[in-house]
Amino acid sequence: MSRFMDHFLYKDGVLHAEDVAIPEIADVVGTPFYVYSTATLTRHYRLFDEALDGLDHLVCYAMKANSNQAVLKLMASLGAGVDVVSGGEYRRAKAAGFSGDKIVFSGVGKTRDEMCLALEGGIRQFNVESEPEMVLLSRAAESLGVVAPITVRVNPDVDAKTHEKIATGKSENKFGIPIARAREVYALAASLPALEVVGIDVHIGSQLTSLEPYEQAYLKVAELTEALRADGHQIKRLDLGGGLGIPYERSNTAPPLPIEYGALVKRTLGHLDCEIEIEPGRLIAGNAGILVSEVIYVKSGEGRDFLILDAAMNDLIRPAMYGAYHDILPVIEADAGADMQPFDIVGPVCESGDTFTKNRLMPPVAPGALVVFRSAGAYGAVMASEYNTRPLVPEVLVHEHQFAVIRGRPTFDEIINRDTIPEWLEGSA
Ligand SMILES: *Cc1c(COP(=O)(O)O)cnc(C)c1O
Q1: Could you tell me which of 352, 353, 380, 398 has the fewest CB atoms within 10 Å of its CB?
Q2: Residue 32, annotated as binding a ligand
Q3: pTM of whole model > 0.70?
Q4: How many CB atoms lie within 10 A of CB 77?
């Protein structure tokens, strides 16, 4: 089995998602749209589950990567837990059928309302990120007559060597409490009436392509576990966060595999007799999705040629926001000896930032041709907007030879009618 097996393959020269030809979906849904593969999502969840085999563990899918209800329902059916970072995501988890004891609540800015929502609906644990949050959570739990299970997110001050916008484990980041202050903060937790300490949490960033930062962080967590136990705290659960990277550029990246990550977890933390939680998002959903778009124009410019697509930065913002790379493929497979030419590949939005890539070698494509962005299943549709009054991009889920629209494209009336005119403007002009 290939390392990159993702169930988006050419069959008879046409790109398929599992057993469904992409043009068949495009005919029904129109472009642009996202497509996810059930088999790939399932496979990626299982890779993590198997990597932690032998340890008491729960894989809590970080839904912020892709929170479509159908994806969540699939994860729930596989036995996953889920990591949420807002009251909205908590509601999504409940709506998809996750029981409260499989929901972990992360995030630096939980409000009292969000805390009460989760305390009333059931929660596995809150990953608390600051002392004021701890105090507020204890008060909220007390007012409801319940006890809130917590871990404290510690910031181990390691360099995750990833993009600055998604690194979270350095001391200058806004996340967690400095590990050097952990014993003091756990003492505060123990003194508050309505909190129950259950463990430690750490999450150092996203799109990590080396195990080394994890190793540094987890060795520090192991040490802290012993120290906190010596202080009399019950540390029975370690939440190790997510962040394992995926090969966006398949020709030259080979991030560690879940099995290698699992071996590291066992080596650094396996002796502590703790329940292990991990929170992968990107690795589960990223290569399980593609964005399909149609070429509107092929435009010759001053010293460069452009492919102008009907997908734009509002549909997939990663290139504009992080300078992210996505492989871009034609849906109709290029001939083996096709003449490759460089193109700037752009969307129709009125900003130069709406550039997916520059100077990308592409085989000949004509207006009307379909192209796909690979590795778009995570942080793609969830970050989409309706900028330029471009309807929110639809999502499709494939399962073997079947496909279903799992979020439809809104109509223009729906979009426009979401706005309301204040009374004092009614009747004017
Ligand atoms: C974003 C996030 C994750 C998931 O990160 P991935 O890189 O998508 O695996 C996990 N845990 C927390 C607390 C997060 O904020």
Answers
A1: 352
A2: no
A3: yes
A4: 11
